[in-house]
Specification:
By secondary structure, the protein is of the alpha/beta class. Helix content is 34%, strand content 18%. Strands 3-2-1-7-8-9 form a six-stranded parallel β-sheet, with helices on both faces. Helix 6 runs parallel beside helix 10. The radius of gyration is 19 Å and the shape is globular. It starts with 10 loop residues before the first strand and ends in a 5-residue tail after the last helix. The relative contact order is 0.19. Bound molecules: 2'-O-acetyl adenosine-5-diphosphoribose. 2'-O-acetyl adenosine-5-diphosphoribose binds next to helix 1.
């Protein structure tokens, strides 16, 4: 196992749909998941959007409304990562593939959404991004252009480049500890992060998931089980091991 660097260690945390599953948001690849009920090429590709924009808008309108349901709230795994960020003795970055807002609602600060955000939309003409809580329909006008048909969900679709990649790889290059939580490890670029962290920075790596993934053998340690049960204990252990921030 790689040696533990105790001085101002750099921690990179990657999360996926599994961390929000216990908050009631469906994952993508479970048997009742989103991709069982919808074809990716219809609702999550630029070509699908060109073919049938109303279908795509309806899909994201539904998901946007879904995460604003009063029953949906951050869980103990989101909160454990807030505790980790607050007390971590070195630099910290949380990168999520999730498009919900549960990390920020829990209190996470250093957070990047690499696949976009459900509660934002983007004008395809100006690239301006707007906070958006409601629906987009064929009658919705963009605030900047004042015409219909230019707004799209601020979501990364298949075939598009994830967001913030320069910042993400710069941090990964020099991270000491890499933790992955609730992601199936089949969607690149995120699926390549553990190899990158180990190859460039020789980081120690821990995977937290309900079950083994195609990437499990790349990790130094795997914690099996629901994230709300495994992550709080891991956070306590890591803070004891690396030493919490003094302030
Ligand atoms: P997936 O649905 O592919 O995988 C969810 C993972 O979470 C699985 O490995 C589950 O075993 C695990 N899991 C489920 N419940 C859990 C729990 N309570 N505790 C811990 N782990 C749990 O979701 P992602 O890996 O996030 O991209 O998917 C990656 C990307 O594929 C998404 O961001 C999305 C999707 O297509 C885009 O839309 C661009």
């Amino acid at each position: 196992m790689p040696s533990v660097k105790k001085q101002a260690p750099r921690l990179f945390v990657l999360t996926g749909a599994g961390i929000s599953a216990e908050s009631g948001i469906a994952t993508f690849r479970a048997s009742d998941g989103l991709w069982e009920q919808h074809r990716i090429e219809d609702v999550a590709s630029p070509e699908g959007f060109k073919r049938d924009p109303e279908l795509v808008q309806r899909f994201y309108n539904m998901r946007r409304a879904g995460i604003q349901d009063p029953k949906i709230a951050p869980n103990d795994a989101h909160r454990a990562l807030v505790e980790l960020e607050r007390r971590w003795p070195g630099e910290f970055l949380l990168v999520t593939q999730n498009v919900d807002n549960l990390h920020e609602r829990a209190g996470s600060r250093k957070l990047l959404h690499m696949h976009g955000e459900l509660l934002k939309v983007r004008c395809q003409s100006s690239d301006q991004v707007y906070v958006w809580n409601g629906e987009i329909t064929s009658a919705t006008k963009c605030e900047c252009c004042q015409v219909t048909g230019t707004l799209r969900p601020h979501i990364v679709w298949f075939g598009e480049m994830p967001m913030h990649m320069d910042e993400i790889f710069e941090f990964l290059d020099a991270c000491d500890l890499f933790i992955s939580v609730g992601t199936s490890g089949v969607v690149y670029l995120a699926a390549g992060f553990v190899a990158h962290a180990k190859g460039r920075g020789r980081a120690r790596s821990i995977e937290v998931n309900l079950e083994p993934t195609p990437l499990t053998t790349m990790f130094d340690e795997q914690l099996a089980g629901p994230a709300t049960k495994t992550l709080p204990g891991l956070v306590t252990r890591l803070l004891a091991e690396y030493g919490p921030r003094k302030n």
